[in-house]
Design goal:
Elements lengths: L7 H9 L11 E6 L6 E8 L5 E9 L2 H13 L5 H17 L20 H20 L3 H4 L12
Antiparallel strand pairs: 1-2, 2-3
Helix pairs in contact: 1-2, 2-4, 3-4
């Protein structure tokens, strides 16, 4: 491909698919959908006792931009809390407007700077981050709450 948007480093990140799959059991799951293009991202997360991510997995049925973004998260999100993910989202959105990539460990987002000139592609880049934020918002899946004495009463009682 000759389009600079789809440079080799971006394609490598997408092909790497760090964190691809699903965690079971999981502490939280979140989903994000781009109705404009049909991209869908689902994430599952496990947290430590302080609410920081210790594991993340993603199922990404989306364009290469969303795939690369999800792969960056899969490789680097461990240790992040909700505030760090909110900051990351703001940093990536700012990069798409102004060109400065987020700091390490998320500096790989620089390969997605080519999407900046395509406003309709910004959502694709941000979609996996939004799925993670939705997981923080939505918390523990209902079926896990039903069987976890700490999260809720057992449905079979």
């Amino acid at each position: 491909m000759s389009d600079p948007l789809y440079a080799k480093p971006l394609l490598r990140l997408a092909a790497n698919a760090a964190g691809a799959g699903r965690l079971d059991p999981t502490d939280a799951e979140g989903h994000a959908h781009n109705p404009t293009c049909g991209d869908r991202v689902s994430v599952t997360l496990n947290f430590d006792e302080a609410g920081r991510i210790i594991e993340m997995a993603h199922e990404t049925q989306a364009c290469v931009l969303s795939q690369a973004s999800a792969s960056i998260l899969g490789a680097n999100l461990a240790g992040a809390g909700k505030e760090a993910v909110e900051t990351l989202r703001a940093d990536v959105a700012a990069m798409l407007r102004e060109g400065t990539p987020p700091p390490s460990p998320f500096s790989d987002y620089e390969v997605l700077k080519g999407a900046a000139v395509y406003r309709n592609r910004h959502t694709c880049v941000l979609l996996p981050i939004d799925a993670v934020l939705n997981a923080f918002r939505d918390g523990v899946p209902d079926e896990r709450k039903a069987h976890d004495p700490v999260a809720g009463s057992c449905a079979s009682s």
